[in-house]
Specification:
alpha/beta; Calcium-transporting ATPase, cytoplasmic transduction domain A; Calcium-transporting ATPase, transmembrane domain; seven-stranded antiparallel beta sheet; 21 strands; elongated; ATP hydrolysis activity; P-type Cu(+) transporter; EC 7.2.2.8; nucleotide-binding; ATPase_P-typ_cyto_dom_N
Length: 842
């Protein structure tokens, strides 16, 4: 038995010969031998072990440091911190494990597409077998409704239409003809004499020779790409980069502080305890759970807008997206064929012809027939058919490209016909075609699918006898969804590029893309044929400036996503079919449709309940808000923690007594970071989120501006409180009172830092009302913090080594805290005025 990748280019007899088969099929003995040789007709499942998925969750620099800090906390007897940190690590890991385990179901969903029953010829008899037992050389009988379970070379087709949307993404069923011979390099969406695994027969019948099964099918080649690892989210990348830099900086500081402390006479156990306390304080162990809270709050908000989040980090990825690669059908357009244009407009009888030359029952039927019903209105459709009873129907014939209906009308019987304009024209009795030709060319040029309608006479059973008078032309389209045009405009103003990828032809694609604002004069256009000629590097260059890709295959969409990523883009891609699975899997953010296949949903990170591009743009806005809030909480946590290190480090270096006891350092971490940071998920939009270009992943949380702001706040916090320390020493305050004042001053100052952190782009006093209301929960956090701090001073003084403070003592606390607040406000005003001058959007 010979093998070939080009059975579509061979005569049927040659295919039978190469596969050692015949129209009577193969013998049972041959079938068993081939089953052993080729294996079962299934897509092999690929699964990682549950243990490997779970262990992967611990492979993160942040997790390493948290575990190290937990171990240190345990050895110095700080059981509470040990349990809190370990709890956070376990919860975070379990969430990641659950999400990745769900994603492993993708290949199982693909496999289900081939789990069918099939009718095959064996020893000249038709028998029913499980589709998993189909082998190359088998002859399959196909009829309406059959799901095709292997790749077939068709022959003896009778009016066969196949829905290939799961493979090509094209919305309209494809006509098949087993007699045609095609060039070797014909692409899958033009394989008129082939039926591919995973597609569905929607009309007609036929027979096909099985040429490929199991892992050799075109569907399996899609499944193979599902094994590729999904990229890390921008947030994960950014946190990873930030963690490495922060850990290096932290160890340098702690080593320096430890060296000076030991040199200054602090004993090793005390110095070790101080360093561990500083490390636990400096490491934002609450960051993973705060980020999870921010993402969860964002996911709930998205859920209100019919966006379901399957993978929590993807919520933030939305805010990072630089490219939206969107399907046309069902996302940009309605996914339903509709009447778009009628010629001539004033011709009344077209309603009668379109109702009678129609094979639907008003609810079920061909896309075109149902579009005509919708255009007429269901009541009018049934009324016309009732008044003109159908005597006989000639179903749509792929050879004559026409269908006809013989009906009783007022003056007797009449034949009502619809079909291809070119074929009706050959049998037409019209005296002139000039106007119809012009109308047809105009509609076709606008990407519409055109049908001709007419009345005639002849034998209903024999189209060759028909004589037709063409009365009208109707153009059909898949119209854009409401709100998409505005969404595209918003996306572009936010610096996000929108590319439409479709299986439809270039005329239709360009027309729709122009209507919704995706395509503008001068933009590039690519087709699947073009992509086939390009290697990956050439494709990367070719995509620059492209806004429409037509006649795209699954591998094309996959390659487009990879090429865009190699250009540094963060790609959000939409899809609903099996054909979209590879692209959804490798995209930074795969978004499937609520009405899509389970295979698409299983690899996507988000699901749109209402399939609409405008929802994606709204979700991007929410994603950007989430990104800003994560950035703000990181600034708050790191600047507060580093401020303590500045105070303690400088005190040790200068030979002063410790300004804070280790237990107080840990308490500051709890009463500030542990309370206020939990309110950051609820910060509202600050301003102009969709007027800024998206930040690069490496700049999400730790860019130069963020570093500068953290450094400014930390140094200001440390120096102001160090100055207070010197002042209190100079006026001979008791040491324990000094420590308690500094302890409280640091706490209150960090609260003020948290209040300032609610707004990144505007000073607090720029809009006081907005500053106060942007996050009401921050004040709840402050109130809880006040209660806890008073308890630490007046109730648990022995535990926290504090003494009671009087009004004068609190005045020092207030002065330093307000001074720190003003210092931050000065910095923000300087930035605001500079940005307003140089970048009015901000």
């Amino acid at each position: 038995m010979k093998s070939s990748d080009f059975f579509h280019s061979l005569e049927v007899d040659k295919v039978f010969s190469d596969l050692d088969s015949s129209p009577n099929g193969i013998s049972k003995k041959d079938a068993d031998e081939r089953l052993n040789r080729f294996g079962e007709n299934i897509i092999e499942n690929y699964e990682r072990s549950k243990l490997s998925i779970f262990l992967k969750q611990f492979m993160s620099p942040v997790i390493y440091v948290l575990i190290f800090a937990a171990i240190l906390a345990f050895f110095i007897g700080d059981t509470n911190d040990f349990l809190i940190i370990i709890g956070i690590v376990i919860i975070n890991s379990l969430l990641g494990f659950w999400q990745e385990s769900k994603a492993e179901s993708s290949l199982k969903a693909l496999k289900k597409l081939t789990e069918q029953r099939a009718f095959v010829f064996r020893n000249g008899e038709v028998i029913e077998i499980p589709s998993s037992k189909i082998v190359p050389g088998d002859v399959l009988m196909l009829s309406e409704g059959n799901v095709i379970s292997a790749d077939l070379r068709l022959y003896d087709t009778k009016g066969m239409l196949i829905d290939e949307s799961t493979i090509t993404g094209e919305s309209i069923p494809v006509e098949k003809d087993g007699k045609v011979i095609l060039p070797e390099k014909t692409l899958p969406y033009d394989l008129k004499n082939m039926a591919l695994s995973g597609t569905v027969v929607v009309r007609g019948s036929g027979k096909g020779i099985v040429v490929k099964t199991g892992k050799n099918t075109y569907l399996a080649s899609i499944a193979e790409k599902v094994k590729e690892k999904s990229p890390e989210s921008p947030l994960t990348k950014a946190i990873g980069q930030f963690s490495k830099k922060y850990i290096v900086l932290l160890f340098i500081i702690l080593f320096t502080v430890g060296s000076f402390g030991l040199y200054g006479g602090i004993d090793i156990p005390t110095m070790l305890y101080i360093l561990v306390a500083l490390m636990v304080s400096a490491i934002p162990e609450g960051l993973p759970i705060v980020i999870t809270l921010v993402l969860a709050v964002g996911a709930l908000e998205l859920n209100k807008n019919y966006v379901l989040v399957r993978h929590l980090p993807s919520v933030e990825t939305l805010g990072s997206a630089t490219v939206i690669a969107s399907d046309k059908t069902g996302t940009i357009t309605t996914g339903k064929i509709a009447v778009s244009e009628v010629f001539p407009e004033e011709f009344d009888d077209i309603e009668v012809i379109s109702a009678l030359a129609n094979e639907s029952d008003g609810i079920h039927g061909d896309h075109m027939d149902l579009a005509l019903v919708s255009w007429l209105g269901i009541e009018k459709y049934h009324k016309i058919r009732k008044n003109n009873p159908t005597l006989e129907i000639f179903p749509f014939d792929t050879k004559s490209r026409m269908m006809g209906s013989l009906n009783n009308v007022i003056n007797g019987q009449k034949l009502f016909i619809k079909g291809s304009y070119e074929f009706l024209k050959e049998k037409s009795t019209n005296k002139s075609f000039k106007e119809f030709d012009q109308a047809h060319d105009k509609m076709s040029g606008n990407g519409l699918r055109v049908l001709a309608f007419g009345v005639g006479e002849g034998d209903i059973k024999n189209p060759s006898t028909w004589k037709i008078e063409i009365k009208s032309l109707i153009g059909f389209s898949d119209p854009p969804k409401e709100g998409v045009k505005g969404a595209v405009s918003t996306a572009k103003s936010a610096g996000i590029r929108v590319i439409m990828i479709t299986g439809d032809n270039s005329l239709t694609a360009k027309k729709i893309a122009t209507e919704v604002g995706i395509y503008s004069e001068g933009d590039g256009l690519l087709s699947g044929v073009d992509i086939e000629k390009l290697d990956d590097e050439e494709l990367k260059d070719a995509l620059k400036g492209v806004s429409v890709v037509s006649r795209a295959l699954p591998e094309h969409k996959y390659r487009i996503v990879k090429a865009l990523q190699n250009s540094g883009e963060i790609v959000a891609v939409t899809g609903d079919g099996v054909n979209d699975v590879p692209a959804l899997k490798v995209a930074d953010l795969g978004i499937s449709m609520g009405e899509g296949t389970e295979a698409a949903k299983s690899v996507s990170k988000m699901v749109l309940v209402d399939n609409n591009l405008s929802l994606i743009v709204k979700a991007i806005k929410q994603g950007r808000l989430i990104t800003e809030n994560i950035r703000k909480v990181i600034y708050y946590l790191i600047s507060a923690n580093m401020g303590q290190i500045v105070l303690i480090s400088l005190s040790i270096i200068m030979g002063l007594s410790l300004p804070l006891f280790p237990v107080q350092i840990l308490w500051i971490n709890m009463v500030t970071d542990g309370v206020q940071d939990k309110t950051f998920p609820f910060i509202k939009e600050e301003s102009n989120l969709m007027k800024r270009n998206p930040l690069r992943p490496e700049n999400r949380v730790f860019d130069k501006v963020q570093i500068y702001r953290i450094f400014y706040a930390a140094v200001s916090l440390g120096l102001i409180n160090l100055a207070l320390y010197f002042h209190l020493l100079n006026i001979n305050y008791p040491y324990m009172e000094i420590v308690t004042i500094l302890f409280t001053s640091m706490v209150v100052s960090i609260w003020f830092n948290g209040i300032q952190a609610q707004k990144e782009h505007e000073p607090f006093f720029k809009n006081i009302k907005r500053s106060i209301t942007i996050n009401p929960y921050i004040w709840v956090g402050v109130l809880i913090g006040i209660v806890l701090q008073l308890l630490a001073i007046y109730v648990f003084s022995d535990l926290f080594k504090t003494v009671p403070l009087d009004i004068l003592d609190f005045s020092y606390v207030l002065i330093t805290s307000v001074l720190f607040f003003i210092t931050l406000e000065v910095r923000k005003w300087a930035e605001y005025l500079y940005n307003k001058k140089n970048n009015p959007i901000l």
